[in-house]
Amino acid sequence: MQFKDYYETLGVEPSAGDAEIKTAYRRLARKYHPDVSKEPGAEEKFKSINEAYEALRDPPKRKAYDQLRTRGYRPGDEVQAPPGGFGQQGQGGFDYDEVFAGGGAGGGFSDFFEELFGRRRAGGFGQHPGAQPGRGPQPRSDTRAKLAVPLEAVYRGDSIRIALGGKTLDVRIPKGVREGQVIRLAGQGERGGDLLLEIEYAAHPKFEVDDRNIFHVLPVAPWEAALGATISVPTLGGSVDLKIPPGSEAGRKLRLRGRGLPGGSLVGKDGDQIVELEIQAPTPHDLKQREAYEKIRAAFAEDWRRE
Predict the structure, then answer these.
(1) Range in 215-224, 242-251, 263-272, 287-296 the model is least confident about
(2) What is the fold of 208-306?
(3) I need a labelling partner for 173 at 20 to 30 A (CA). Which of 61, 134, 249, 250 fits?
């Protein structure tokens, strides 16, 4: 398998903090999302960005990757897994498989990712800690796995299809399920045991999660922020119109009530979507647009830095 430089993919330094990594991911994901990008190879680029973010956003995964990276590998170098796999070499102790729902933001990862983080094991599931190979039939035991679920499936309560251990399974996702909750599939585990799927949320190019609330960064033009506008905003339930008040500044947060994750029967209250305004100045592409910027400069040159 070939080494991948996840820091290079996201355009950040190895010393980057969590916030910088998240910002870089969000910016690149918006640029290369297959639904909006017209650039050649956008879909493959988008997959690479998601893979890099999945590796670096989780502290144990990032630690395991950093330990491998210190050996001096460069992108494209052949990497040979040690006997027993990377997870047995003190690089994070991944003793479970991770499953990504088909079509989700986390799907389609490379061999490098799967080998490094222990998704490929004998038999497809990962050896149970108490199993002893070569000693005849083993007792029935439950199999644990993490299931990265798209936020849309959590919002709607969809059924999703996963592939694990040579099996294809349809899993119903409870509406509003929380991270850390476990779905039990009777008899679908190793040696006839149950399969226990621990829920985690797959990385999303447009949204971030805080409890039941969804956060979205909305790019707005300077004139939209200054004069006010009505802009179509994506939500997990479809696009809605959001009114931008005149005189809005960068970083202002607007609330769409009830547009977050469902509360479910135990929590009750649905979350909200918080929209943070990010003012972006378009690049002028012709003389007319450049002249418009020159007029803005002339109008604001004297006092805008004093505000």
Answers:
(1) 263-272
(2) HSP40/DNAj peptide-binding domain (2.60.260)
(3) 61
Q: What is the Cα–Cα distance from 97 to 88, expressed in whole angstroms?
A: 14
Long-range CB pairs of 287-290 (<8 Å, 24+ gap) are none
200, 54 in Cβ contact below 8 A? no
Quick: pLDDT tens for 120-179.
433 333 333 344 444 455 566 788 888 889 999 999 999 998 887 778 889 999 999 999
CA angle 117, 119, 123 (to 5 degrees): 145
* Domain boundaries 6-127+140-201, corresponding CATH code: 1.10.287.110
Cβ partners under 8 Å of residue 121, min gap 6:
85, 97, 127
Residue 52 tokens, joined: 């890099």
Q: Is 180 left (phi over 0), alpha (psi -120 to 50) or beta?
A: left
Q: Smallest Cα–Cα separation from 246: which of 231, 219, 226?
A: 226
Enumerate the domain spans of the chain: 6-127+140-201, 208-306
Candidate ranges 91-95, 123-127, 140-144, 234-238; pick with highest mean pLDDT? 234-238
Spatial distance between the Cα atoms of 201 and 182, rounded to a whole number of angstroms: 13
Nearest to 113 by CA among 71, 24, 50: 50
Stated as kind and residue range, the H or E segment containing 57 is helix 42-57
Per DSSP, the three-state class of 104 is coil
The pLDDT, as a whole number, for residue 266 is 53
Pairing of strands 167-172, 159-164: antiparallel
pLDDT at 190 over 60: yes
> Which whole-number Å values give the CA distances from 228 to 17, 234, 289, in the listed order?
34, 19, 21
User: What is the DSSP code string of 10-44?
Assistant: HT--TT--HHHHHHHHHHHHHHH-TTT--STTHHH
Q: Choose among 44, 68, 182: nearest CA to 117.
A: 68
